[in-house]
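Lecture 7 notes: from sequence to structure.

We start with a single chain of 489 residues. Read the sequence below before looking at the structure.
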Amino acid sequence: MAQLIPVAPFDLIIFGGSGDLALRKLMPALFNRDSDGQLSKDSRIIGVGRSPMAQEQYLAAIRASLSAHLKDEAIDEVQWHSFANRISYIDLDAFDPSSWGALSDALESGQDKIRAIYLATAPDLYGPVAQGFSKNSLMTDNMRIVLEKPVGHDFDSACAINDSVGACFPENQIFRIDHYLGKETVQNLLALRFANSLFEPLWRREVIDHVQITVAEELGVGNRIEFYDGIGTLRDMVQNHLLQLLCLVAMEPPSSLDDDAVRDEKLKVLRALKPMGTKEVQANSVRAQYKAGAINGTAVPGYAEELGSASKRETFVALKVEIDNWRWSGVPFYIRSGKRLPAKHSEIVIQFKPVPHAIFDQHYGTTPNQLSIMLQPDEGVKLSIMAKEPGPGGFNLRPVSLDLSFEETFDIRYPDAYERLLIEVMRGNPALFMRRDEVETAWRWIDDILAGWEESQQKVDTYVAGSWGPPTAAMLMDRDNRAWEASDS
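Now the structure, written as tokens:
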């Protein structure tokens, strides 16, 4: 493994610093990067929140989170104390101009450092925080601001947020994060397609029957339920994660790995998505909400029970998507995402067409080739091919898999997506982040689905927690004589 080079000294200011995202994802990611020597000696981490909190209390919360989320790794006490010495906590109300004094004082000594703002907050704070830095003379030449998804809740709100943040920061300093773009397998998708002459010639409608993209979660909504009830799975997962994965599968070869070259090709895919009017939404979309069930043998409540009232908010979405261009015309993309499903499982399945002329009779049981790209919990690639079973007695065929597990093959711990993305922020490399036009184009397409649901008053189906979603999701594919992979449907 190549020696890691520390990034230049930085001040990372995390708004929502005591929240779930900061404690569960960002702090463990930063601790791992610090343990591997990538955080320079003078780098600081400043947690910002609305509630007052003593330094000792904040560090205790971080330590507890590290113990919970790095449970397979020993936390070295010397390393912990070194990491803790980087951290401070400041209470601040972004809407109150008088509360910015403590942060201004803390940043006074860091004028020459990289100054990165991470907004692990609700989107309605993005503009006010950006403006707060500008109004309080906290802007420097070497700044970045990180916006968590979703950026807004529709096209108009996304444009308003982008305008508000863009009034203070140029586009090259705005990092709209989608942590799926930091996953090793997602980046390997580019290598798989564009560094191998084997696959790219086959990546077309004449050879591929259909594509499936699944992002499944065991967890429910948890303590995000009030926020989640305002957005749902279509906005929270499909508008960003699943559409980004679809773009990487479907895009044309970029001219280079330059950040704008890659993002230009993704944008072309988003613009080629076939619009879904009310009729198409009714035929090609499923939305559903989990009810009480069991996950891994443990009883879990339904969404309405967790919320404390009835709701029409979806926790599961399945869509049949079409791309109107020369490469993909006629090839359906089936995408789905949901909470309280049987397993944490994210996968892209490329289903190839049958051989054009079968020399083996039907009793041989030949099946078309399939390429599976696993994103979580284990990252890897699996190619299913037909092979003859050893032994006499004629041809006895069965599918076998050529498996590549990245962790086993390269014998290293793969960094969490947030680890990679945080370092890329400090390096000022926007390639793994979404550009403004990507976000807004995705929202335009999503808004049509939301409008179709509203106009048709489409029913919100239910599914038992621990299942793979409602029967209507299986029917979405069944009527095309296809079936979801990695499910019991």
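The CA atoms of residues 16 and 420 lie 20 Å apart. Keep this in mind for problem set 3.
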